[in-house]
Design brief:
Length: about 375
Amino acid sequence: MNTGGPAQHVAILAEGLTRHGFDHHLIFGSVESDESDMSHVLGDGSGDVFLVPELGRSIRPLADLRAVWKTFRYLRRVKPDVVHTHTAKAGLVGRAAAIAARVPVTMHTYHGHVFRGYFGPAQTRLFLGLEQLLAKKTDVLITLSPNLKTELLDDFGIGRQDQYRIMKLGLDLDVYSSEIPGDLKAELGLDPSVQLVGSVGRVVPIKDFDLLLKAFADVPRDDLHLAIAGDGECMADLRATAEERNIADRVHFLGWRDDIPNLMRSFDLFALTSKNEGTPVAIIEAMSAGTPVVATAVGGVADLLDHGLRGRLVESRDPAEFAQAMVAALESGAPDEQREETITAYGKERLVFEMRQLLVDMLDAREK
């Protein structure tokens, strides 16, 4: 339950499906030392929860085997009709345990993938082979966008066409309907007239905040500031880059924050420079706040931004090109209809309704 889209998505499903009469059990693991934990959002309405401490993001063969064993024992005890897994590591552990426990229906949601930019060639081939094998034993494969489905099916040979369903993220976005501006500029001691570019996420190589800093340095404006919310292994390198580029006085490293709606309403522009993404929650949150977006065209980002109609997409990893896109986005602002359309398309009740219907259809098909 590390802070991010999958955890929010799963928490909403846990509460929503329990509310709709499903006996729901949520199995989750431990966060890494550089991650923020949001398991506190799991309340009394989330069904039964079961922590497997050995389950984590890092690859640890012995701990991973213990995670499979503990998950298998739990599934044998509760005897679920359906096991639905999320994310790469939990997807491998959960489905391996579900197959061993002979669970009738298995489903997996790809919030993204780890087959580009995460590991070296040998590890990537290993994980891809495991994913291809598990996909053959999975009843339903869910992606959050059409682009992600195309990548998995056509580029990586995972699963069959008839296994896939596309189901958008569902988030609690009502708080973003507020017209009250954020107060981050005041917190940072900035004049309200100063424009602020913001970004949110784990400060790790795949997010490539280094590109964002270099692009920001290329913008010929001394009155523009940048705020980055998050933390991770690349933080020291980012601080060094800011010093080297003489922009340290205009770059604000916020650390982990729990006031994301306030941040998004404070930003004049949201920027994302990832090398690989599924469907970034931060972009949805920015759009829900009416904040313009510029992002690298990776994974499901193009679908999210309607292929450039709802934000600016940058195809290359050239800092100068990203800088030009930021300047253009600051000048043009966000589309008038962006906020309302985003809140409707990615709301939590829509997700719960679609998932409930899929589960009912799958279980009915099993009984026939």
